[in-house]
User: Fold these one by one.
Assistant:
Number 1:
Amino acid sequence: MSMMLSYRREAPGPAGYPLVKSGPDLVRDLVGTFTRAWRRYGDLVRFQLPGNRQLFLIVDPDCIKHVLDDHQPNYPKDPLSVGKFEPWVGQGLFTSNGEFHFRQRRLAQPAFKGSRIAGFAPAMVDATSELVKEWKPLADGARTVDITPEMMRLALTIVMQTLFSTDVSTRAGDLARAVRICNAYTNTRLQRFVELPEVLPSRARRQFLEARALLDAFVYGLIADRRRDGSPPDDLLTRFLTAQDQQTGHRMSDKQLRDEVVTMFLGGYETTALSLVWAFSLLSRHPGTERRIRAELAEVCGDREPAAGDLPQLRYLRAFFQEVLRLYPSVWTLSRSPVEDDEIGGYRIPAGSQVFISPYLMHRHPKYWPNPEGFRPERFEQSATGGGPLYAYIPFSRGPRLCPGSSVAVLEAPLVIARILQSYRLTLAPGHVCEPTSNVFLYPRDGMPMRIQHVRTVAG
């Protein structure tokens, strides 16, 4: 009897407004609404939505492990959210579920392991050195620029060179802008609780279709060139192109190849670019940390460019980046939907509901993080998880759907930071408030305007 009563308990949460329930609050400010509800109601919160829908927010490591690992088959990607992504991303690793997802993952995984990853480092450093050259006129005049689009085109150049052996340096700005338009359109759709017919004309939809067409033309051209290549490079695109189903003998269609390449646009560069944006904002706000990283760089690298082999000695830089990911995880929420009724933390979780896990809030839980709002890279110097439970630190998710590109991100970002710091100091524009906004990823509200100065100028 007690187990039955426990199963029927409803999680606490806001009642919301008549008819529309909590919908308007979630649309208006998802980060703020989640944060306030968590602080008021605890680690498992129930939001009521129009149409008798329910949304659950989970901020507890054991409950997160339940969803992402122990009972993962019962918690596929949330179809409501996935459906909003599909017009842009299609059916790739990011949106797919079940056996199809894990088949695609098995094909992609070898591109993200071992010596292959270390081999990406020279291209990462070279691309950053090109950006350093481009920034010289800005630094000569100590100009202030929004570094968000700068990091976007750098990260896109790197991911295309390393994963697809393609130089997009001359087109990176246009491609990155197209991706941002597609993501902004998708974000708007994600926050609608009444979906409008896609045939209705709007400026946003027109811009989305134009941006998607630009990206499709680029990607399909890339696929066609690779199919004609008699000696293709052994990269992720070639692996997808040559993969063959063991049972049917079928290979991936151009549409499926397109969806996987676009998935890398979505998750393979924008997340890293945003983590770099937040990293430089934190360095500006914490000059003592910047001085310590510069001293470590001088000791390990001297006057030469950083390399992958330097990272084991750049311990404080790596700890700093882990703290960046704690405070500002680019993927700030993960959504799932149970196939069958379940119980989490003693509360009823009905089939078909939406379950949101928030790394952004989990990383700020005072039970697992001393001084959770404080900036303390030292917490990661002795522990890869900051000293807390494994599922309290989830910048790349956990379990079977752990981000396959996480190993690329933790190589790329420290190398980019190191190379830029060798030449410049980036300082936040006076009065700028570093505040995140709820987008597909964790963007800075109002950008990140920073003044670029030569290191020798800073040193006096």
Note: The longest helix spans residues 203-228.
Number 2:
Amino acid sequence: MLYDDAEKWSREEIEKAQIERLRRSLQQAAASRFYGALFREHGVNPDAVRGLDDVRRLPFTTKKDLREAYPDGLLAMPHADMVRMHVSSGTTGAPTVIYHTKNDLDWWASLMARCMHMVGIRPTDVFQNMSGYGLFTGGLGIHYGAERLGCLTIPAGAGNTKRQIKLITDFNVTAVHIIPSYALHLANVLRDMGVDPASLPIRFALVGAEPYTEAARRRLEEMFDMKVYNSYGLSEMNGPGVAFECTEQHGMHLWEDAYIAEIVDPETGEPVPEGELGELVMTTLGREGMPVIRYRTRDLTRFLPGPCPCGRVHRRIDRIAGRCDDMIIIKGVNIYPMQVEAILMAMPEVGQNYLIELDRVGVMDQITIKVEVKEEFFVEDMRALTGLQKRITSRLRDEILVTPRVELVEAKSLPQGEGKAKRVVDKRGTDS
């Protein structure tokens, strides 16, 4: 069952709509101070767009551009037409601001409802949103999508784990929005309370906001006896609802009636071959208040080739492998934290948490990976622990091509919180 007609569009219908909507988005964007100047500088004429290949001739937009345009340089309509704004944290410079009109919010809610309906959530489900509200787009975006779908929606917000559990059990919550590291934390709290996570009524979990591996997803599904669906979004493209898994759980359908997606080489900006990893570049097609053209997300993914068995032809992107700026360089080797997680989460002895520490010994960089071990495996038999340590070291070396120091630690001994997990600590200093 489909939520709306756009889900069943053919490639021809999708591409025809994309070209028409791209021209309109470029015309709207040109009304802003930022894009008006940028288009004049690069000779961009919205009316000259004839096909999707013309997108590649348009200039990129970067996070730096959004910061320099703060607070309203990308507004394409008067302030009076805006009904909401979201602002980034701005911890590394000026914040970025995203504005929405009433029509923009209506479009966003429909896209999010489409995502939820695709995985089987229906108006009869009770949905608990365990995400932060306020300036963070994740909370409100999914909240309005759930209400648009018709679910009883509980705006629980982030944190306060025991209250979350009480709400889930008291109101028979069947669907949740949660970040993966917090889901693992929730499972630990439940077990400490003597509650089996699988006994909760949850059948669907929508997860995103931080990279995680397929092994971690399967672990969550087994622990809670629920289906876990990957979600992708970013504030610059609205927030959640940009791309979402179907019930096949093999890649996220990116809604091409709302966005044009490209995958480029992070260094050159040129397209990469189909199926190869690269940086995702996005263009909005349905936002009127603040269109964003060819935005470099810094997120690494790839297009999945071939048709999806579900029948939808909206292109699928793979789970986010990390960010261009998340890459660790040790002894000249490029390493992504997701490579480490993929190895660790596939080992039954490994607990829920790990930490990558980077340090410098003399003139040499060193990588230490602290790994929590499940209580039943953290035994006094040093031979067993040493054997486990060697197996982890060997598997990591084969994957990342560098031999790390592996430290085994007791379960729940590494720092854990109710927000995004901190996986990397770099102690090498700014001269590394």
Note: The chain has two domains: 1-326, 327-426.
Number 3:
Amino acid sequence: MKTRIIHAFIEETRNNGIKFTMDDLARRLGISKRTLYENFSSKVEILDSIIDLTLTEFDEQTRLIIDNPELTLPEKIKKAIVVLPKYNEFYDLRILEQLKRSYPAQWERLNREMHQWDDLKGLLEEGIRTGIIKDMNIDLLMKLIIEASNITLDRQFFLGHSISITESFEMIVDVLLNGFMTEKNDECTGT
């Protein structure tokens, strides 16, 4: 039942924004408010559950990538950047802005988590140590990757341009790791 409630919560949010009532949610589910409150005491508890589940799954998926001995370091870096957590459809700019205004504690937690990525930083540091990544300021590199990844939160842009979130992440990773110039770029730069 809790999973069903979470899915309905996300659907309600996607359709109507974050300002709906527990009555609206119970109606969407076709259950009584009492049944809803037996599972979750408030909207905040549901929000916290979504955030907890998302962050836990994100960490678990990343850990599986890092611990996979069959992957090379470049493959681990690429796969770590494109990890999509459960309920990723919940995270878009519109919802985050509403969270910031109406649920500042939840927004603050999400914002903090979205701007730190210790596992990826460890992979990048290893890449610098082993020479597969240029020696550069790791904090600036992390900010570049995080900010590039966070543009996928602009769901309206991607929907409007018929680009899936997975495709957008893959393109972002490709540009970050390989650049956007073709091999003909030597002619342009004179090298």
Note: The chain has a mean pLDDT of 89.
